[in-house]
Amino acid sequence: MCRSVPARRQCPRLPVLSPSRPLLDVRDLRVSYGKGAHGQGEAAVSGLSFDVCAGEIVGMQGRSGCGKTSTALAILKLLPAEAHASGSVLFEGHDLLRLSELELRRIRGKQISIIYQEPTLALNPVMRVGDQISEVARAHGLRNVKGQVNAILHRVGLEPKRHYVTYPHELSGGERQRVVLSQALICKPQLVIADEPTASLDASLKSEILALIEGLRTDFGTAFLLISHDRCVTSKIADRVIDLCAQQKTVPASALSSVCDKSSPTRILRREEPLVTVRNLCKRYRTRGLFAFGRSEKQALDAVNFEIDRGTLTGLVGPSACGKSTLARCLALLEKADNGEVLLEGRNLLSSTPKEARKSRPMLQYIAQDPAAALNPRLSAAEAIEEPLLIQGIADRKQRRRTVAELLERVGLDPVTADRGCHEFSGGQKHRLVIARALALQPKLLILDESLSGLDPETQAAILGLLGELKDRLGITQLLISHDLELVSSLADSVAVMRDGRVVEQLGAEEIRDHFEPRWNNGKLEAAPKRELVTAESE
Amino acid sequence: MKAARYFERRLVHSVALLVTISALTFTISQLAPGSFLDEIKLNPQISAQTLAGLRAQYGLDQPVPVRYFRWLKSVATGDFGYSLAYNMPVKKLIWERLGNTLLLGATAMVLAWVVALPCGIWSAYKARRWIDRILVASSTLLLGTPELALALLFILVAAHFGNVGAGFEKSRSGGASVLRGVRIPAVVLALAAFPILFRHIRSAMGEAWHSPFLQAARGHGIGNMRLLLRHALPAAASPLISLFGLSLAGLVSASFLVEVITGWPGIGPLFLEAIYSRDFHVVMAVVMLFSLFLIIANLIADLLLYAADPRVRAEC
Q: Which among B219, B311, B314 is the nearest to A108, CB-wise?
């Protein structure tokens, strides 16, 4: 069923068992979500077969929403109650899918460990990390727990003395990932399933963690099932790669066609009045007052000046904490600027009355960073999209229904899915949903605040394609905020560069390409991490 | 060090809050028509001169701000004034009854928490199973029943079996009599507090139970009981500690109505009588006592929160 990409390194290094008998043998695994008890629901994984040999690193890659995480959870029967898994997962002669909860508990963490996607979420915020690791050891009856925990902490590159007593929030992202790794490895399992272990890390940390995983494999003879959307990650250390995408549904062709096509951005030749002009915009944050002593202030925006031309896609880039999001929120009237002007078609939004401001709101639509958080999980997709129409009192029931269907189609979602709950969509689909919702009021300016970070490359490209289409077909002006210069420059007609609360320069389309390559190499701006891995791999 | 500064700040807040509450209460109760002496006025045997003399003696002829600052000054030295109706110092009057109210409040609180905590945890663990449904349904029923009705119902049942024992007399009573007296009001109060506690515990535990780190811990093969008590409960502690603070604050004030109905010699009946007879200093003292409890309870809850949640420690 599934395509195995030819191995870079043909043979696993440490075959503990004979190669003919795999450690884990997954046969015809099907996972479906939804009501029907026997797979009538939405299929997340359909008929997946693969195996993992002892001491082998197997990569598993695929777009978001193609069932990677479902597969990982299904192996240890950790799927949520509404999911149903069938097929067989053979491990040491047992079919894990048919074991009781009690029998599984002896395997989980001891023989097969799982590393969850986001270490920040996977660690208990109110428990010391050392205790969290020893919990796992105790659950499986290890002796000399304290000594073993210290040993494993040392092995993953943490200081046992210092880190044992810290809480997760006191650690950096890389350190948390190391803690999660030691939790998984404390009982020396035969297999570790690592779900996106590097997704939240920057380039150098990513390579460190990958090197660590490779080292642990050599030391302990542990097999890894390494799940990642990032091809560079899997191909870097995996012995074999399973591509889930090859067998799963693909996104609509229209969305993929204009992916990252550098020739498509149309440059505005005529210089007309800009849609939005920002003049001397200032915003200062204070800590709370009254009886609080030692109040401090932070100048988030320090006299920002820039323009957004009609029908263009303007990029706004800069290092983190330089005021990008504050600027976006001020533009969207979600935050009140202290000083300055925001002119939309010549009218100053900041001096307008609340009533006038309310009228301008539909013209400015803000798309928040995390679409999952921006959608109410209790609403269906249709309800979420028609909400702005309801609030503004536009259109009757029938018309709204039609608009919702049109919008869903426009952003590349199937209108049939309109009645599904927002939480049932995958990460990339949620992005499309929030864009559809923002489009409902036919805005003049779409503000996208880091909307594309955290997506896998295919989804990112598809969403970028969608944005390009919106610009070209509907002429919707967009402000795309990102710390990823490469991504913005591939699509934007002009780019504003921010640093320390100021827009330090605004460049047109040609200048972007001329200027950015050398600058970026100078390390003047934060670079996208993934490029580094690509080059590392091609060498 | 940081913690000390934080609580120092909180203490300053609290004192400011208490002063504001006292000023507001003082002003508002002065706005209400009538005073203690107005009742005496109805008696034809007391002359106008005597009344004016009494007025001057109690300082009631002074303007409100002057009286407020006098009151504030005497409170600062620990003197809460004089009860006109009981003809004794307010402090002594309240002190006697505070013990009774605290006894009742504490019994009810312990009872409510001891029942609600395991019920809430179990209900969250068995969410949507029949045990959970029964508990949720009964808590809804209790939530909808006024404590007044509950108290009357209990008294009715007790009277039917000739076993009322409402109230008690301290002079003649040993521990058994106190226990007999506290039974009905304590159970009624605990039942009234139960649904709120239960629901909060259930939802906090439910949320913790479904959090990603709990899923992760399950993936490491940790048993259910340990997951529930060692992992989920501490994670759910923050909202529960705030809730605990609220029930501490209600220790003196929540039993007000039940005390009146069941004839418990606590602060409730005293407060009610003081309001009726416009016994001003008693009203002021009781309101200040309620506020003080609320503020202290919040402070304790914050301290506990600080101890329980490392993230709070990092923030302040």
A: B219
ipTM of the prediction? 0.77
Which residues of chain A make contact with B311, given a CB cutoff of 8 A? Answer: 125-126, 167, 169
Question: What is d(CA A466, CA A482) in angstroms, rounded to the nearest whole number?
Answer: 17
Q: Report the percent of chain A where pLDDT is more than 90.
A: 17
What the block records as the tokens of A524 is 């003047």
Residue A139 C-alpha, separation from nearest chain B C-alpha, in angstroms: 5
Q: Does the pLDDT at position B178 exceed 80?
A: no
Exposed / middle / buried, residue B156 (Cβ in 10 Å: 0-12, 13-18, 19+): exposed
Buried b (16+ CB within 10 A) or exposed e, A337-374: beebebbbeeeebbebeeeeeeebbbbbbbbbbbbeeb
Given B12, B13, B212, which is nearest A122 (Cβ)?
A: B212
Phi, psi angle pair for A16, to nearest 5°: -75, -45
Return the amino acid letter for B101: T
The answer to whether B216 contacts A114, with C-beta atoms less than 8 Å apart, is: yes
Any A CB within 8 A of B236 CB: no
B206 CB neighbours in chain A (<8 A) are: none
pLDDT at site B119 = 95
Q: How many alpha carbons fall within 13 Å on the CB side of residue A22?
A: 16
- B222 and A167 in contact by Cβ < 8 A? no
Phi, psi of A50 (to 5 degrees): -160, 170
Distance (Å) from the C-alpha of residue A209 to the closest C-alpha of chain B? 19
Average pLDDT over residues A516-521: 46
End-to-end CA distance of chain A: 32
Give me the mean pLDDT over the A128-157 stretch: 92
Residues from chain B that touch A76, judged by Cβ atoms under 8 A, are 219
Give how far B285 is from chain A: nearest CA, Å.
26
Beta-carbon-side half-sphere exposure of residue B166 (alpha carbons within 13 Å): 20
Q: Tell me if B218 and A122 make a contact (CB, 8 A cut-off).
A: no
H runs (alpha helix) in A393-484: 397-410, 427-439, 457-469
Q: Which two tokens stand for residue A100?
A: 């009781």
- For the segment A233-256, what is each residue's pLDDT rounded down to a tens digit? 777 888 888 888 764 433 332 332
Measure B242 CA to nearest chain A CA, in Å. 16
Rounded to an integer, what distance in angstroms lies between the CA atom of residue A54 and that of residue A198? 23
Highest mean pLDDT among A115-119, B215-219, B260-264: B215-219
State residue B176's pLDDT score. Answer: 66
Compute the average pLDDT of residues A337-348. 84
* Separation CA A421–CA A433 (nearest Å): 11
Sign of the alpha-carbon dihedral angle for A181, A184, A188, A189: negative
Of A238, A208, A314, A59, nearest in space to A529 by CA: A208
Q: Are B242 and B74 in contact (CB under 8 A)?
A: no
| Full-model pTM | 0.66
A337 pLDDT above the threshold of 70 = yes
Residue with tokens 């997709």: A381
Query: Strands A276-286 and A339-344, how do they pair?
Result: antiparallel
Please write the tens of the pLDDT for every residue from A172-216.
Answer: 878 888 999 999 999 999 999 998 888 767 667 788 888 899 998
Cα dihedral sign, B121-B122-B125-B131: negative
